[in-house]
Write a structure and sequence with these properties.
- The protein is α+β, with helices and mostly antiparallel strands.
- It has a single domain, classed as 60s Ribosomal Protein L30, Chain: A (2-Layer Sandwich), CATH 3.30.1330.60.
- About 35% of the residues lie in helices and about 25% in strands.
- The chain is built from 2 helices and 4 strands.
- Strand 2, helix 2 and strand 3 form a beta-alpha-beta unit.
Length: about 110
């Protein structure tokens, strides 16, 4: 059983909302975990942008990234009602921009 708050971090290219091949392996493991433990919910936190991007453009890209991750998991058989999406744009407290964090909640 997993601890509440476990994090899966999926990196993205600087201008892309397509899930890179490197991130698909992590997402497949997350999908299998969610299939095995029906009480798990996740929060998808999308980040994007750089100093030259406007806040609204960064927020939009971060939303598209989080939605791409949600769609990938839905194709793996995970119900959308088990996933919450937040687009945080370039408001990052730790780590780098251009990522989606999937945080496990129970």
């Amino acid at each position: 059983m997993l601890d509440n708050g476990k994090l899966y971090r999926i990196p993205f290219g600087s201008t892309s909302s397509d899930i890179p091949n490197a991130g698909q392996g992590q997402l497949s493991k997350l999908a299998q975990l969610m299939k095995n433990e029906s009480a798990i919910r996740i929060q998808l936190l999308g980040y994007a942008g750089s100093t030259k991007d406007s806040a609204s453009k960064a927020r939009r890209l971060s939303l598209f990234r989080a939605l791409s991750v949600r769609t990938y998991l839905m194709k793996q058989g995970i119900r959308s009602t088990r996933m919450d999406v937040r687009a945080l744009g370039n408001r990052v407290e730790n780590g780098t921009l251009d990522r989606v964090d999937a945080v496990i909640r129970k």
